[in-house]
Design goal:
single chain, mainly alpha, two-stranded antiparallel sheet, 4 strands, propane 2-monooxygenase, Phenol_Hydrox, EC 1.14.13.227, Ferritin-like_SF, RNR-like
Length: 549
């Protein structure tokens, strides 16, 4: 189809739109944004007549590659360390995709642009397709990988697990609160335009280096759709900019959306890329180098900074702080250490680091060994049951962290932890930005302006709070992370499948009950809480106790 006929077809589609006169429209998904002066254009002008043949061809390539992987015996060559981490990744990623599909109808009423509704409808189809091919990829791994345990039940279990709850709050952010905040700024302007670069481009490269060429095939097919989604977000952003009343909301949402994406995506993808790989070539980019190239240079400098010409205040301080978190404060390394600390509350096997890993980390992150090396040596020492407890219950100079109420990643950079009293509860936050999000941004009033559509963060958000006071064996059983024999745990702190070297529920029963730092924090008096915060801020790096002096 020529460009001219495509433009005519796209224009014809808009004639099918109408405003019903027979009832008063009900705004099911509200927004505090206004679009009185907005120019209503769709810069991409995609139509289904060109869309479906393109997607069909991409699906042929995806499913053809999967057939080739089975015939080519890929699963005998792929690194176990890598595929174990895919049990977490492939259980979580379909939920953001489906949430993104559900987010698009929220915009049909909120964004008064029939031309753009066409692009949003196509994005909805995209997101359903992405979830389908990703879940099919997980099914293929489960059927062919040496250890299917974890793949087989993760779809119904990740939402209640030690790490998966973080991914759940991230995905549900696409469909809760103000429709424009959630489905446009948070999803299309930030998550899809910026952070899918590391998610769908950098991570597939690492998969290929570990012998897995199926994940690159699937996720490059996904990423090739993101240009349309980016276009939807940018068009809505420009519409919002045309009305001066939207400026404070845009600046609020850019700050919230940037920070929550950084906290969750960098935590997860950074850990997969740095700690899920066996590729330790010195010329391979570290996650910090990937982040600097894909997000700092390609998104921040090329996309966000030019918005200043419209008078929009860009969150430069948060971009720089995110980089500081990754490069100076060891954010990704702290997250990987936390994931491994709680290996017993997960559903995959977490491989320990070797001397080759140590050397690579020290080369890419000078000073890494002094901070994290001893802990990982203890992790290896305690990996197989031999009369000792799992590492979470042993004295290895690690203080179990409090959870962040907002992003649900624990407060791992100890010096940044802050607290507040919100909605009748004392809450801990990993950073001042997460406190601001909960206590100021997600409120019915923002800077004196009524914002009734924002809502607030509610519920039992911390995983530890759900199981406070439980025996560890009962926690694992309740989550369903037990193998077919009814006693051997799905998760292990090593890759050895010898039954004599695997942890069981009997090992867990002798542990002290699980304690939630957040519950204990609320049980303290004011003086106790003040002392707790002062001590906590002096801890670390690598979760070390505060110095005695």
């Amino acid at each position: 189809m020529s460009r001219q006929s495509l433009a005519k077809a796209h224009q014809k589609i808009q004639e099918l739109s109408w405003e019903p006169q027979y009832h008063e429209p009900y705004m099911k998904y509200g927004t505090d944004y206004t679009f009185r002066k907005a120019a209503k254009k769709d810069p991409l002008k995609q139509v289904l007549r060109s869309y479906f043949p393109m997607e069909e061809e991409k699906d042929h390539r995806v499913y053809g590659a999967q057939d080739g992987a089975i015939r080519g015996n890929m699963f005998r060559q792929v690194q176990e360390r890598w595929l174990e981490w895919q049990k977490l990744f492939l259980s979580i990623i379909p939920l953001p995709e489906i949430s993104a599909a559900r987010a698009m109808p929220m915009l049909f009423q909120a964004v008064p642009n029939p031309e753009l509704h066409n692009g949003q409808a196509i994005q909805m189809i995209d997101e359903v397709r992405h979830s389908t091919i990703q879940q099919n990829l997980k099914r293929l791994y489960m059927n062919n990988y040496i250890d299917p345990a974890g793949f087989n039940n993760s779809l119904r279990s990740f939402h209640s697990d030690y790490c998966g709850t973080i991914g759940r709050q991230f995905a549900e952010g696409f469909i809760t609160g103000d429709a424009i905040t959630a489905a446009s700024i948070y999803l299309t302007v930030l998550a899809e335009t910026a952070f899918t670069n590391t998610l769908f481009v950098a991570m597939p490269a690492e998969a290929a280096a570990n012998g897995d060429y199926l994940l690159p095939t699937v996720f490059h097919s996904v990423q090739s759709d993101e240009s349309r989604h980016i276009s939807n977000g940018y068009a809505t952003l420009l519409m919002a900019l045309s009305d001066e009343d939207n400026r404070p909301l845009l600046e609020r949402d850019l700050r919230y959306a940037w920070w929550n994406n950084h906290r969750v995506v960098d935590a997860a993808i950074g850990t997969f890329i740095e700690y899920g790989t066996k590729d330790r070539r010195k010329d391979r980019e570290s996650y910090a180098e990937m982040w600097r190239r894909w997000i700092y240079d390609d998104y921040y400098r090329a996309y966000l900074v030019p918005l200043e010409k419209y008078g929009l205040v860009i969150p430069h301080d948060l971009v720089e702080e995110s980089w500081k978190q990754i490069w100076e404060k060891g954010y990704v390394h702290e997250v990987a250490q936390f994931f491994a600390t709680g290996w017993l509350a997960n559903y995959w096997r977490i491989d320990g680091m070797t001397d080759e890993d140590f050397e690579w980390f020290e080369y890419k992150y000078p000073g890494w060994y002094d901070k994290y090396g001893k802990w990982w040596e203890n992790y290896n020492r305690l990996a197989k049951p031999n009369g000792h407890n799992p590492i979470v219950a042993e004295d290895v100079d690690y203080v179990y962290p409090a959870r962040c109420w907002t992003c649900m990643v624990p407060c791992l950079v100890r010096e940044d932890m802050v607290v507040d009293y919100v909605d009748g509860q004392h809450r801990t936050y990993c950073h001042e930005m997460c406190r601001w999000t909960d206590a100021e941004a997600f409120r019915p009033t923002y800077q004196g302006r009524e914002t009734p559509n924002m809502g607030k963060l509610v519920g039992k958000r911390e995983w530890e709070t759900l199981y406070h006071g439980w025996n560890w064996a009962d926690v694992v059983q309740d989550m369903g992370f037990v193998r077919d024999d009814g006693k051997t745990m799905t998760a292990q702190p090593h890759l050895d499948l010898d039954p004599k070297k695997m942890w069981t529920l009997d090992h867990m029963r002798r542990l002290a009950p699980l304690q939630s730092p957040n519950v204990l924090f609320n049980e303290m008096d004011d003086a106790g809480r003040a002392a707790f915060v002062a001590d906590y801020n002096k801890q670390g790096p690598a979760g070390r106790p505060a110095p005695a002096n």
